[in-house]
Amino acid sequence: MPGSTASSQVSTASAEPATSGPVVELVDARKTFGSVQALAGVSLAVWPGELVGLLGPNGAGKTTAISLMLGLRRPTSGTARLFGLEPRDLRARSRIGVMLQESGIPLTLKVREVVDLFRTYYPQPLSTDKVVEMAGLGEFQGSLVGKLSGGQRQRVYFALAICGDPDALFLDEPTVGLDAATRRSFWDQVRGFKRRGKSIVLTTHYLDEANALADRVIVIDHGVIRAEDTPEGIRALVPGKKITFHWRGVTAADLAGLPVEGLALDGPRVAFLTSHAEDVLRALFGRGAPITDLEVAGAGLEEAVLVLTGGR
Amino acid sequence: MVAGQVQAEFRRLRRVWEFTGFGLAFPLILYIFVGLQGSGPGAAEYHKYALASLCTYAVVNIALSTFGISVANERGSRMDALLRATPVRPLAPLIGKTVAAIAFALAAVLLLYAAGILLAGISMPFEQWFTLTWRLLLAIVPFICMGFAIGYLSGPTGAVLAVNLILLPMSFASGIFFPINSLPTVIKDIAPYLPMYHLGHLAWNAVGVPYDDLWKSVLWLAGYSVLFLAITLWAVRREDDRRFS
């Protein structure tokens, strides 16, 4: 059942593919690079048909976690399993599709040709036309890869990820560097693929992306899982707005009784999070607070993680 | 899977006309400058000798570029990371590249043959053409291994530099452009240790130049294959540890 990691069936033998059990599993996975501990004991499972979002700031360990799931790296300790198998097992690899953050494709091939090439790696690929349609490559399928824009190239990488008709899709920060419209259309493509009933693991540092796509969000920071819940559950943990302003001579007492969290006073500068922005502002103005330089913004990921990590 | 790789490699070659054209045209141009001189007695022998030399050069150039530069590019662009997440068997791209390189080398060599016949009036019995061809194509192996070593030891820019810095001096020192006897003593001493020297001798011998140490040269080339393969495996292992462990 999605959302339950405590009751995962841990397969101890990876000799045969599991017929039930999680699609992807990390059990107390740790990864150290020299003196840096990128993952400090992460356990998670992804079940068939769900889209799990791994949400965290840069350097949180998301890419490392995905590398372990894919067998690109081996855990320093703990285990990683893909369909119950060792991730480097070709039987497991044949059932996944991947979009990596750092990636390259032959620049001198046309888009359709690259899709053709990658299709030959898989036992039961989708037809090239189907891939072109699902990834929205129609307009530029005859163009050279080297001549594509950033957004177009991301679509090609997505096409390469889905061309093998994988049972599990791994997307590592797929919309970094794209403009808002492109990101949204990418989300549509991901949703389209999800409708086929496959599992998807998505890493992102965009809260709105996790909200838009994930059935379940796992918040990771400094190599450790901080929270795990549905997007609504995560949102409920995080006050919605961040408010900052200047108030000469302000003291903590001036803000007493207001529903604010993470209050930070730095000279005249005040910053806090709240889910009741309008009420708080109304109360402050009612008290005649001499506020200047007022800014109200949506609480971002840093604020979310701040709250979830206890507001260090 | 292998067929797909071969097809992709051929497409790549067709696409990058600058690279492919250069690989085909440059030896041809060199040949026209270097290989057509002379008339009178001994000229016919010289023409054949020059043809064999430039064929050697073309084959080595293609081996080093196909394996050296494109492998380094794939590593530099991190395409190898993406490929690792796919179920592609490592042998498939390798076979694809080898087939494409041999076809490319064959094309370059045939072009030179045509120039030799049409422009220099070279005439040889069929066995000599045949022997020259299969010796060149077989002895491409140590240079494929050398290309791999370069590709895994260098970044994309470094590989291009390395191939250029290695190819031309090695060609000169091996007697490709000027007969070995006319080279300075220091270089004459180094020459017999160079792999291209031995390939050159196999090629010259195919067009009728007597050569006693045929098997010695074959052993040298085999030895270099093993050496470069070992270097490549070491470099691959090192990269594996750094990026994929």
Concise summary:
The complex is a heterodimer of chains A (312) and B (245). Chain A has 312 residues and is α/β, with parallel strands linked by helices. In chain A, 29% of the residues lie in helices and 27% in strands.
Structure description:
The complex is a heterodimer of chains A (312) and B (245). With 312 residues, chain A is α/β, with parallel strands linked by helices. Among the domains of chain A are: 142 residues, P-loop containing nucleotide triphosphate hydrolases (Rossmann fold), CATH 3.40.50; 71 residues, Alpha-Beta Plaits. In chain A, 29% of the residues lie in helices and 27% in strands. In chain A, strand 8 and strand 9 form a beta hairpin. In chain B, helix 3 packs antiparallel against helix 5. In chain B, 41% of the residues are buried. The chains are: A alpha/beta (312), B mainly alpha (245). At the A-B interface, helix 3 of A face helix 1 and helix 4 of B.
